[in-house]
Amino acid sequence: MLEVEGLEVAYGDLQVVWGVSFRVDRDSIVAILGPNGAGKTTTLLAVMGLLPAKAGSVRFEGEELIGLPTHQIVDRGVVMIPEERAAFQSLTVAENLEVGAYTPRARAEYEETLAEVYEIFPRLAERRKQSAATLSGGERQMLAIGKALMARPRLLILDEPSLGLAPIVVEDIFGVIRRIRDRGVSVLMVEQHVEMALEVADHAYILEMGAIVAQGTGMELEADPRVQEAYLSL
Amino acid sequence: MSQLIAQSIVSGVLLGGVYGLVALGLALSFGVLRVLNVAHGELLMLGGYLAFFAFREWGLDPFVSLPLVFVVMFGFGVLLYLCLFRFVTRTETHTRIKNSLLVSFGLALVLQALAVRFFTADERTISTAYSSEAFTIWSIRVPMVRLAGLVVAIVAAFVLEWVLHRTRFGKALRATSEDWTRAALTGIDVRRIYQIAFAVSAALAAIAGSMVSLGYSVSPSIGLGWTLKALIVVVLAGLGSMRGIVVAGVALGLVESLSSVWIGGQYREVTALVLFLIVLSFRPLGFFGRAAGA
Description:
heterodimer, A: 234 residues, globular, B: mainly alpha, ABC transporter involved in vitamin B12 uptake, BtuC
């Protein structure tokens, strides 16, 4: 459903992404893994229209996304959760969920989606009236995901969902990501937590120095000696 | 003496209400777009002239023309955003302040020159049949037309707070002011929010201008002085509370007015600036300000 081809992104004269291609199939979880500074976040920001692409194409359900403003990409059903503090700190939990459903398409199904989100995260319902700034790290990530679900995504993009979270919370979050996929939302995530990401991902890509250097199913990559040496402490 | 002090407290509070009203608009454009519009006072000046000419040419009472002034200057604000400030907001947040200073300073000069050319440099005041009416409590005069400025400021602050906290648009506006990138990723059309916030900011300046030309006077050169007052009020109050802005405006009016009684009229501006520096050193986020995430 998402096809990225030959994507090149530069900050001024400094090119960071060099011809990256990958795809996300319907109902699958795809992970992009790699070290810090490999261009993972940059790639995601270009997909979302927040950074201009120098070359290449990003097609979602056959439609070219490059050139569309970010809010229209969200309206198409591509929703990204940026890393850390994805929810608005100056808004309450309920207000965050309300603005999460900002596009006309999401607004039309606001009530049902809200009920679903509260069902997935009962904790958010309890803290409805609280400011997002008062939440714990794990609750913050739940709110970030809940807010993204309010936009009625067909493809959910997560940037480092495990960042700064305790291992047990990370387990929970990955469990939620699986549940979201099972509800018919495809998932694309960037992770440094390679072992765990390979476990949940149907397909994964390794990005180094702005280029894809390896790809395969989670099991294939786990067995790949290069991946083992560089990322898995075996 | 106590009579004089009581009278200057009243005048200070009334003038302070207008300070608050001017500052509401500045807080909106600064808080949401992160641009510093030093031509804000010139927008007040234009609004003042609009109300003045509507009164003189068409006999429109300044309270009747208030919605008209709001709408016309809202439109002018949209135009200014599309022609000038749109380009400033394309840059990173930290370069916006510098760039907007240059752009809006130029705009202030242009508007001022045009006002001299078309409206002449004369000082203008709207004199209605009720302009000299006042009520007196304990032999303190409260002029009606100046009281109106304070009332309009309070109403404007409550309406703004209601919109910001009770409507979906207002929540999106608060989200955008916290972080425009995350707002865009939420599906909010950030440019549209900017456009509307800037236009409302211009319209609020103009409403303040109406009240200034009714209770005080307008001339082409008054802009910078009002911008300065608004800036001081925004720093005193901090961003985040509209009611706080009006309270800070009243406080500034009071301090100025009392200092001219106790210290001397020539020091009123100095006292205000000293207050500004003191607040800046001890409460850099203002009295009602909140840091993002706090």
